[in-house]
Specification:
Elements (H helix, E strand, L loop, with lengths): L1 H13 L1 H12 L6 E7 L9 H16 L7 E7 L6 H5 L2 H12 L4 E5 L14 E7 L33 H25 E12 L9 H15 L5 H5 L10 H11 L2 E12 L4 H8 L5 H24 L4 H17 L4 E11 L5 E4 L2 E4 L1
Length: 366
C-alpha cells in the first residue's frame, strides 16, 4: 500500500517547480484577500492532501519574499466524484492544520470539499486562482460511443483499451470522447478561474507516434488469457472497455488552442518506470526487491486504480488471480526494456482575449 502512495507522491513532486512558477505569476500581480486553490480528482488516500501542502507552502513562501503585509488567507477545495470518501481525507486535516500552525503560528488555511464531476461547473464565476489536477483527466466522462457495430458486434474484441490490434475507428472513438471532455473541462474552468489565474494539469500521455500506454493493454491481454482458459466469460470481456484516454502532447496542444480560453505557458514530459520509487523504499527499509516483490508492487499500483471498475463488471472472485498474472507479465515486459509511463504536465493561464500576455511574470498588452 505504501509503495503505491510513494509512486503517486513521486508524480506530484515532479511538478512542484511548475506549480511554484504558476503561483508566482498571479501572486506577483498582488495578493488578494483570500487565495482560492482547487485540487480536482483528489481521491481519498493520504496523498490527497499532498498537493494542498505543496501549494500552501509555496504561497506562504512567496508572501514572505514579496513582503506581503496583508493577512494571508488560503481557501482550498478538494474535488472528486460524489462517491469519494471525503471523510477519510478530513481525518487527515487536524494534523495538517497543526503542521501549519507550527510553521507560521495561527492557521489561515481553510479546506473544504466540492463533490461533483469536473466536466461540469463546480465553483462561482471568477472565484478560483489556481486549479491543480494530477492523474485524473485521463478518466473520460463515459465509455466512448461507437465501439460496437449496429448489429452489436464489438469493434475492439479481445481488448479493453486502445491496443495494437484495435482498428482505427476505435482510436477515433476514444479521441473524440477525450476531445469533447477536455474541451468541456477547459470551458468550465474558464468560467471559474480569475483573469490570469492558472491551471496545472498532469496526464498520463502517449508519444505522438506510439501509444506508450502498454500497462492498460497488458491488463487486457491478461484478461484475454483468462477468457481463453475459461476463467472469464468471453462475452463479458467483449463488452468491456475502459473509460480512459492518454492523449499525445500534440493532441493536448490542439485542444487547448482550439478551445481558446487559456494560454499554454509550459508543457513538459517526464518518464517513470513501472517500478519507480522502489529503490527509495529499499533504502528506508533495508529491503532488496526481487522479481516477485516488483511484480507485487506494479500489480498493486494497477489494482489500486482499476479494481473497483473491474469488480463491477467481472466480479471480485477473479481479482487476486488477475493481478498476480498481471504482475508476472509486467516483469517479463520490463525485461525487454519496456515498462515506461510517459507523463505530461501543462501550465495554462487564463488570458484576456482582448489582447494581453505574460512577460517576466507580469501582464502586458500585446
Amino acid at each position: 500500500f505504501y509503495w503505491i502512495l510513494d509512486f503517486q507522491k513521486l508524480v506530484i513532486l515532479k511538478v512542484r517547480a511548475i506549480l511554484e512558477e504558476s503561483i508566482q505569476r498571479f501572486c506577483h500581480l498582488g495578493f488578494p484577500e483570500c487565495i482560492t486553490l482547487a485540487d480536482l480528482g483528489c481521491s481519498s488516500g493520504p496523498n490527497a492532501i499532498l498537493p494542498i501542502a505543496e501549494m500552501v507552502e509555496i504561497v506562504d513562501k512567496l508572501s514572505e519574499e514579496l513582503n506581503n503585509q496583508k493577512p494571508l488567507n488560503i481557501q482550498v477545495f478538494l474535488n472528486d466524484l460524489v462517491g469519494n470518501d471525503f471523510n477519510t481525507v478530513f481525518k487527515l486535516l487536524p494534523s495538517f492544520y497543526k503542521q501549519i500552525q507550527r510553521k507560521k503560528g495561527e492557521g489561515s488555511c481553510f479546506i473544504g470539499a466540492m463533490p461533483g464531476s469536473f466536466y461540469g461547473r463546480l465553483f462561482p464565476q471568477h472565484s478560483v486562482h489556481l486549479v491543480h489536477s494530477s492523474y485524473s483527466l485521463h478518466w473520460l466522462s463515459q465509455v466512448p460511443k461507437g465501439l460496437v457495430t449496429e448489429s452489436g458486434l464489438p469493434l475492439n474484441k479481445g481488448n479493453i483499451y486502445i491496443a495494437k490490434t484495435s482498428p482505427s475507428n476505435v482510436h477515433e472513438a476514444y479521441f473524440i470522447q477525450f476531445q469533447k471532455d477536455f474541451t468541456n473541462f477547459l470551458s468550465m474552468r474558464s468560467e471559474e478561474i480569475v483573469h490570469c489565474g492558472s491551471l496545472v494539469l498532469t496526464f498520463i500521455c502517449k508519444n505522438d507516434e506510439v501509444d506508450g500506454c502498454d500497462f492498460w493493454e497488458l491488463l487486457g491481454i491478461t484478461l484475454n488469457d483468462m477468457a481463453i482458459e475459461g476463467l472469464v466469460e468471453e462475452a463479458k470481456l467483449d463488452k468491456f472497455n475502459l473509460p480512459l484516454y492518454a492523449p499525445s502532447t500534440k493532441e493536448l496542444k490542439q485542444i487547448i488552442e482550439k478551445e481558446g480560453s487559456f494560454k499554454l505557458l509550459q508543457l513538459e514530459t517526464f518518464k517513470l518506470k513501472w517500478d519507480s520509487n522502489m529503490d527509495d523504499n529499499s533504502e528506508k527499509e533495508a529491503t532488496i526487491f526481487d522479481e516477485k516483490s516488483k511484480a507485487k508492487y506494479i500489480a498493486g499500483n494497477m489494482r489500486a486504480v482499476q479494481e473497483s471498475i473491474l469488480v463491477e463488471h467481472f466480479g471480485e472472485e477473479i481479482m487476486d488471480d488477475l493481478f498476480e498474472r498481471y504482475g508476472k507479465k509486467a516483469i517479463e515486459y520490463m525485461k525487454n526494456g519496456k515498462g515506461i509511463i510517459i507523463n505530461v504536465v501543462v501550465s495554462l493561464s487564463k488570458w484576456n482575449k482582448k489582447g494581453e500576455s505574460w512577460n517576466n511574470g507580469k501582464v502586458v498588452p500585446v
